[in-house]
Amino acid sequence: MSEKLLVIEDLAVYYFTRADVIKAVDGVSIEMNKGEVLGLVGESGCGKSTLGYAIIRLIPSPGRIVSGRILFHGENLVEKSEEEMRDLRGRRISMIFQDPMTSLNPVMKIKDHIVETLMVHGYEDEQKALDRARELVEMLGIEPSRLEDYPHQLSGGMRQRIAIALAIALNPDLVIADEPTTALDVIVQAQILELLKDLRKKYNLSFVFITHDLGVAAELVDNVAVMYCGKIVEYASTDRLFAEPLHPYTRGLLRSVPNVLMKKWDLSPIPGTLPNPADPPPGCRFHPRCPHATDRCRREEPKLMDVGGTKVACFLYR
Amino acid sequence: MEVERARVEEPPVGMVGLLLKRLRKPAYVGEYMVVAGLALLSVFLFLALFPDLVAPYDPIAIGLGPRLAPPNSQFIMGTDHLGRDVLSRVIWGARIALLVSTSAAVLSLVIGAPLGLVSGFLGGKLDRVLSLVMDSIYAFPSLVLAIAIAAVLGPGIANVAIAISVIYIPTYFRVVRGEVLVIREQLYVEAARAIGAKSPTIMRKYVLPNALPSMIVVFTLNVADAVLTEAGLSFLGLGIPPPTPDWGQDLQRGLEVVLSGSWHPIFFPGIMIVLLVLAFCLIGDGLGEVLNPRLREP
Lengths: 318, 298
Known about the structure:
The complex is a heterodimer of chains A (about 325) and B (about 300). Chain A has helices at about 50-55, 80-90, 110-120, 125-140, 155-170, 185-205, 215-220, 240-245, 250-255, 295-300, and strands at about 5-15, 20-30, 35-40, 65-70, 75, 95, 175-180, 205-210, 225-230, 230-235, 305, 310. Chain A has about 325 residues and is an alpha/beta fold. Chain A has a domain at about 5-90 and about 170-265: 3-Layer(aba) Sandwich (Rossmann fold), CATH 3.40.50.300. An 8-stranded mixed β-sheet of chain A has the order 6-7-8-3-9-10-12-11, with helices on both faces. Chain A has a 4-stranded antiparallel β-sheet with strand order 2-1-4-5, covered by helices on one side. The longest helix of chain A has 18 residues, at about 185-205. Chain A is globular and about 65 Å long. The two termini of chain A are about 30 Å apart. The model of chain A has no long low-confidence stretch (mean pLDDT about 90). Chain B has one domain (about 35-50, about 75-295): Orthogonal Bundle (MetI-like fold), CATH 1.10.3720.10. Chain B has 11 helices and no strands. The two termini of chain B are about 45 Å apart. Classes of the chains: A alpha/beta (about 325), B mainly alpha (about 300). Chains A and B meet through α2, α3 and α5 of A and α8 and α9 of B.
């Protein structure tokens, strides 16, 4: 079997506020191959973005990686110095942010954004960098003349294309996309997804795709990890997950999304709300909202178990 | 893939270009204020640059006319207690006023802004210490502090500029630091980190340019304040040594004779101070409105 691109082992990221310790990511393990698109799915606050930021080591203060390993090409990113990480960022691991309206510097021209990215990582000749910038934006469906524009002169979709251009400018091994389509309207969303699919095919890019939108995930993603309150509750290939969701939370998520094929409008939201990640419930963290909760669920924490190809953390399947 | 062709706006001309373009056809109060302020200031600039072209007499020549002659056709603003031409002194005084106030404001900008930038961006102990130092300077009554520093340094153009600049350093520090605290949380700073940019690069290219608009506004308002402080120091005899024409100094001499009924030696320098301060205030307040659309009245 080929070497894994990314292996996350038992990662825990906590936010240390004055009052509480918020366990945003609490014992997560994931594996990813080169060329794979891994989806991280879950409600707001489930820790999926924190996990994404942890991989590129940009967890906002007061967050810290408490334990675990992030092996990228076999190298542990958790032990890397800030200097070493800086060299990796943008060149081998890059990031696309949620809001293209604010992820570009308002006083910098588009071309300077791209040239800057290239020059940070070894391009010495500005003309060469400019040529590459032109090639990049053209590839992403933007007229090279727009390189002279400032961010506010571009539409949201165009800005997100530029953000994608920045992320793939140096052919990174891994792109972390933090809800890259959430802030866009539906048509632009579809275009951006199409673009990401294209790029992926052409350049064999690997993505960690963070989203709360199962529909978006289904479009692009090979494997899905469903997160709930800092933990992965189900981890399967996209096809399997949608065909046969196992975890009650995943089923609940799928039931709460409208579907054009639905005969009647029977959306059923998951009752209750996300527990406080500073004080998660004992046992299975989903048990207060779970229709199948038993005494065991309240006492004991289920581990991820392989059930016919799907990994699921639930006592229903033992 | 289809190329997006929609143009959202006209081609860019940069921030300064955009500003100039807008000011050519002022549309609301703020822009009119800037235009009026610039017009007034350009008059003063002309006086300061070419006083010899405008001033009818030598400003330091004693006994040109009778002592304390009221305004007349020969001496439009009259003469002072030494028989010097008030008009000529007032014109030459613009040079000192502008020179001292702008160099003081530039000096404090050059020192205060980078300190605020670094302090706000890096935070931590450095920020604590710098903020404490700056707050203690700021808490001091500014004119008293300027007097103390000027008294230690002694009179002279450079010394007055230094004394004034010290009291404005905290203003830049606080404004820039406050802006930086907001800017450093912006997504584009995060994005700059995500491409692997170093902190100095992020400060120079991402944070500083975005803090610039407020720095410009504070600068103009500071120059206005510096004009007053300079006049104040000279009035107290701590500023520019005589016989160099200086408004503050002339006010002080004029004060001695105003009770005997000679109003003109004190009136005209006073008016000049008011107008120059007004010019800078108009520019500063107007720019504040132009650069910050949220301040604009509906």
